[in-house]
Amino acid sequence: MDLVIKIPLTNEHNISYFGNIGIGTPRIVQRVSFNTAAHEIWIANNIQGMNNPYVAFESSTCDYGPDSEANLQVRPFYDLNMTAIRRTDKFWAGNRTMRSVFCAVYDVNPVYYSELTTWTGIVGLSFSPPAPHYAPPIWSTMMNANMLFGNIFSVWMRNYNDVGPDGGAIVFGAANSDHFDEEQGHEHYDLVDGCSEWMIQTSFVAVGQNREIQGGKALIHTASPYIFGPSRIIRAINTQILGGRRRRRRHQQIIMGEEVEDEDSHVFTHDEMLTAHNMPNVSFVFSGSDRVYTLRPNEYIIQVGGQYVSAFRPMHFSSPTAEHYTLGMPFLRRYHSLFNFEERKIGFAPSNP
User: Fold this and answer.
1) 3-state DSSP: the chain helix, strand, coil percent, rounded to 5?
2) Within 10 Å of residue 177's Cβ, how many Cβ atoms?
């Protein structure tokens, strides 16, 4: 029996990665985002406007339990709320099947989002919080059913030039050596104590040779197209990328549902892009190792809607103790990631193209 489950990923416009799973009887294929910052499985259930044929009451293997309501806020990138009822049904991942509790989404707000998105579900890969009725993450279901060779999963996201169906893979039970630099291998980091997220500690961030930018906790987020952080820190990073030049104009933007004033537009001008190759690298060092993880300008400058923008984006936090970085796709494209849910560790190695 094959104890490794590989699901190919599609890279869509460099801001989303999707893979296919099946649900129900008859089996309905769902395009899902694998999200290390989300809990549980979320499947759109008969929502008008979404490209989704799954209807819970039409599946002969769907049980109407545990019948508890669930709510999900998809942020910081999407300002999106979803409401669901928990059900149980049969799932296909690769060529393996399992039964799992999931959230059957019956309401998406804003409604217009269903007309824009191409995903039909989210597979949460975080740890389940200690709350009643929460469903276990899919890797926990696989582990308890002895479906995996090892109690790990790994994520390989291909680079910016690879847009299409060959965008990478998520592998449950192993790490495919074709996906990373096997000679250098993975460096592993403990999760923050008492944390139910895939969060590690950052020692510092450096822009070029400048190591004055503080570290802090870092959430590893496979569904975030950007790298988020506290506003003052992100402002310092973007200012140093531009050689110390600060943007004079101020603007308002909505972050985590609140209006935040910021000096930097994060959009590079035509003249700045002419010398982008001279911009400094941005590096991260995590607690417990002196290995340096570097992003080059072509890796942190992203083309969105015909504009070139910085991958470093500000996030509003309710208190200083809640502040953290969110390391999303720009970092994970550069570094293959290995999530060890048995030992509560994350490993990184340089990705292969």
Assistant:
1) 15, 45, 40
2) 12
Question: Could you tell me the two tokens for 242?
Answer: 């531009």
Report DSSP state, residue 113: H
CA 18 to chain centre: 11
State the pTM of this model. Answer: 0.91
Query: How far is 19 from 306, CA to CA, in rounded Å?
Result: 26
- Rg of the chain in Å (alpha carbons): 20
Q: Where are the alpha helices (DSSP H) in the chain?
A: 113-116, 138-144, 231-241, 270-274, 297-300, 329-334
In this predicted model, what pLDDT tens digit does every residue of 233-251 receive, in sequence order?
998 899 889 876 655 444 4
What is the C-alpha separation between 92 and 104, in angstroms, rounded? 16
Question: What's the DSSP call for residue 226?
Answer: S
The amino acid that residue 152 corresponds to is: I
Nearest to 314 by CA among 265, 272, 276: 265
Distance between CA 253 and CA 261 in Å, rounded? 7
Strand partners, 22: 29, 92
- pLDDT tens digit string along 104-145? 988 877 765 555 567 789 999 998 765 666 778 899 899 888
Nearest-5° angle of CA 100, CA 51, CA 64? 30
Nearest to 341 by CA among 197, 201, 224, 222: 197
Query: Which amino acid, residue 234?
Result: I
Distances (CA, A) of 161 to 232, 264, 315: 32, 27, 28
